[in-house]
Write a structure and sequence with these properties.
- The complex is a heterodimer of chains A (276) and B (69).
- With 276 residues, chain A is an alpha/beta fold.
- Chain A has a single domain, classed as NAD(P)-binding Rossmann-like Domain (Rossmann fold), CATH 3.40.50.720.
- Chain A has helices at 3-20, 35-40, 42-45, 52-59, 72-82, 115-126, 157-170, 197-200, 220-239; strands spanning 62-66, 86-90, 131-135, 149-152, 173-180, 183-189, 248-253, 258-263.
- Chain B contains two helices and four strands.
- In chain B, strand 1 (4-7), helix 1 and strand 2 (32-36) form a beta-alpha-beta unit.
- Chain B has one domain (4-67): TusA-like domain (Translation Initiation Factor IF3, 2-Layer Sandwich), CATH 3.30.110.40.
- A four-stranded mixed sheet of chain B has the order 1-2-4-3, with helices on one face.
- The chains are: A alpha/beta (276), B alpha+beta (69).
């Protein structure tokens, strides 16, 4: 861990301790897990699938979450809770009252606050041991370059294809997701090795064919299911667990609780990943 | 081969098994970890979890002897 990051962590811990009114000492950085780490992550460390190596892989990881809304809220909360060392949160919008039924990182007192800032504040309270970096901006391809993994929680097809193209160009692992109404989709991608989002869906739906989140409705828990699945896939890829949704997407229809795993393959000549 | 030692009498579930599991991860197959447990929950759960994970387990009083698989 660099001195800058250590100093940043100490600052985070001090500020969280000050706000919580409880004295806290920053843990010195250690090669392995500290006692505090073992206690914080005990319920995942106890899993047969998990290990100290998996936990350290999360701590060393930098993840970019694109969108701090209905999908980004559970994704970021679970990744912060699980101990991902550095989380970037990208969102250009402010919190609106119509967001609150599904965007669980934002509360009524946050109305008007930039979503990236609102989310980062909650995530730092959730886990002061990690670094959270809010970006109050629209997604830009350069943002993925420092990331080990990107989770796309955007709410438009235009951004989704933009994120896919950027991750393919930089060969950064990606977890895609989308939700509308009571249905959604999740897909894990290792660009260059497995099918990308454009391999599965070569063209976005024609304008007007697909409602955006703003135009269409969505039930909060349905977004929570999809976001939770995205968070799980992200953790799976970071820790190297078996069974990732690679070369496949999962379609989830909560009208009738149907989970359908659809195999996809790389498409020769794919505009986004064909040349890598 | 000398056994490694761990005392989990100062913690409660799930940390009793978590600390044991992490200590086992650091050992090579065939190495032995002797875990001092409190009677009750720890002495019931640590041997059971170790056996479920495929290790060889023997209990002597409050000492759980685990050979890493």
């Amino acid at each position: 861990m660099s001195d800058d990051r250590r100093a940043f962590l100490r600052g985070l811990v001090r500020s969280a301790a000050g706000q919580a009114g409880a004295p806290q000492e920053a843990q010195p950085a250690a090669a392995g897990l500290s006692d505090a780490d073992v206690e914080r992550y005990a319920r995942q460390l106890v899993l047969p699938e998990w290990s100290e190596a998996a936990q350290l892989a999360l701590r060393e990881a930098t993840v970019l979450v694109v969108g701090a809304g209905a999908l980004g809220s559970p994704v970021a909360a679970y990744l912060a809770g699980a101990g991902v060392g550095r989380l970037g949160i990208v969102d250009a919008d402010d919190v609106e009252v119509s967001n609150l039924h599904r965007q669980t990182l934002h509360f009524t007192p946050d109305l008007g606050v930039p979503k990236a800032q609102s989310a980062a504040a909650k995530l730092r309270f959730l886990n002061p041991e990690i670094v959270v970096e809010p970006y109050q901006a629209r997604f830009a391809p350069a943002m993925v370059e420092d990331a080990d993994l990107v989770v796309d929680c955007s709410d438009s097809f235009a951004t989704r294809y933009e994120v896919n193209a950027a991750c393919c160009a930089a060969r950064v692992a990606l977890v895609e997701g989308g939700v509308t109404g009571l249905a959604g989709l999740v897909m894990a991608i290792r660009p260059g090795d497995t099918a990308c989002y454009r391999c599965a869906f070569p063209e976005p739906p024609p304008p007007g064919a697909a409602p955006s989140c703003a135009e269409g409705g969505v039930l909060g828990p349905a977004a929570g299911v999809i976001g939770s699945l995205q968070g799980l896939e992200a953790i799976r890829l970071l820790a190297g667990l078996d069974g990732a949704l690679l070369d496949a997407f999962l379609h989830v229809d909560l009208h009738d609780h149907a989970f359908l795993r659809v195999a996809v393959t790389r498409r020769p000549g794919c505009r986004d990943c064909g040349a890598i | 081969m000398a056994a490694h030692h761990l005392d989990v009498t100062d913690v409660t579930c799930p940390l009793t098994w978590v600390r044991t599991k992490l200590a086992l991860e650091r050992l090579a197959p065939g190495q032995q970890l002797d875990v001092r447990c409190r009677e009750g929950e720890a002495l019931e759960n640590v041997p059971r979890s170790a056996a479920e994970a495929g290790h060889d387990v023997a209990v002597e009083g409050t000492l759980v002897r685990i050979v890493r698989r």
